[in-house]
Amino acid sequence: MTFVCTGYAASAADKPLGPFSFDRRTPTDEDVEIDILYCGVCHSDLHMARNEWGGTTFPIVPGHEIVGRVKSVGSKVTKFNAGDLVGVGCMVDSCRTCPSCQEGLQQYCETGGMVGTYNGKDKYLGGITQGGYSKAIVVYEGFVLKVSEKLDLAGAAPLLCAGITTWSPLRHWKVGKGQKVGIIGLGGLGHMGLKFAHAFGAHTVLFTTSPSKAEDARRLGADEVVVSKDAEAMAAQRGSFDFILNTVSADIDLSVYLGLLKRDGAMVNVGLPEKPYSFSGRPLIGGRRTLAGSMIGGTPETQEMLDFCAEHGITADVEVIRMNEINDAYERMLKSDVKYRFSIDMASL
What CATH fold (topology level) applies to the domain 2-161+297-348? Predict the structure, then answer.
C-alpha cells in the first residue's frame, strides 16, 4: 500500500530541481509517519542531484537533515506517539544484525552498507529511497530520533548531518578540557565543529584561508584563528595540537597539518575531496600521529548529540528558505554564500 507524496526532485544531472509527486509506503507496524517541518540543505544533496559522485538514480528527492512531527505510528512502535517532534538523518535502515549495527554504528553496516535516506535501496517499494525535500516521510522507528521542543527547529535540522558528522569524531577521540583542538574550515561542518569543541571545554583554534572569517569564528567558539596561508603563523603552531578535525573537501596538504599535532595526536577527515589525498608520511611516523576518517554517526550517538544540544542551546546557524528557492541556494552554496547552512521551511512546498 502506498500514498502519494509531493516534493522537489532532480530529474537529471543537468536539470534544476522542480515539483515532483511520488509514492511513499503506507506505514507498517514498525514505522513512523512524519510530516516534515524543516529540511537542511547539505552539500551532499547537490553532489547527488548533479551526479558528481556517480551512481545517482533519477528522479531523486534529496534531503537528509529532517525535522518533523509524527503523524501516525505502527502498532508495534513503542518509542514515539503522534504529535512528537522527531528527526531523521542520513540513513533510514541497515541490516540491523552485523557487529557494527549491533553496536549502534549503523553507518558502518557490514552487510551491504547503510540505507541512505535518499538514493538508497528501497526494500519496501523497490527503486530508491526519496529524501526530505518533501511533505512527509515514513521511516522504521529504529532510525527516528527525538528532538527537543526547546530547540529552534530550522536550526535543529542540520544537526542531523552537519552536527553528527562533527560530533562523532570529537566524541570518539575524547576531545575535552585541557586539550588544544583545531578545526579546518568554517562552513556548514566547521561551524558546528567549533561550537562542539568549545562546548566540550577544549582550547579551540580555527584554520581558515580567509582572514575575514576571524570575527565570526570567535563568535562561534574559536579561541584563536590561524590563517593557513600565513606560513609563519602555521609554523608557530607546530607540535601543539592534541586533535585536528578537517571539515573541508579541498585537496589540502595534510602533511602541514599533521606536523601541527603533538606526539600521539590525531587528525580526522570528514570531508571528501574529488581527488585522492597525497601527503608525506614523515609527520606520521615522526610523532606516532594518527590520520583517520569518520562518517556521520550511529543512532545512539546522534540521539546523545541532540540531547546535548537541547541542554546547551546549540543549533546550526541557518538561513531559512522557501522550497522554490532551492536552485538558487545550490548556486549560492557553491560560492560559500551562506552562514552556515540553508534550512527549507517545508510549509512553503
Answer: Quinone Oxidoreductase; Chain A, domain 1 (3.90.180)
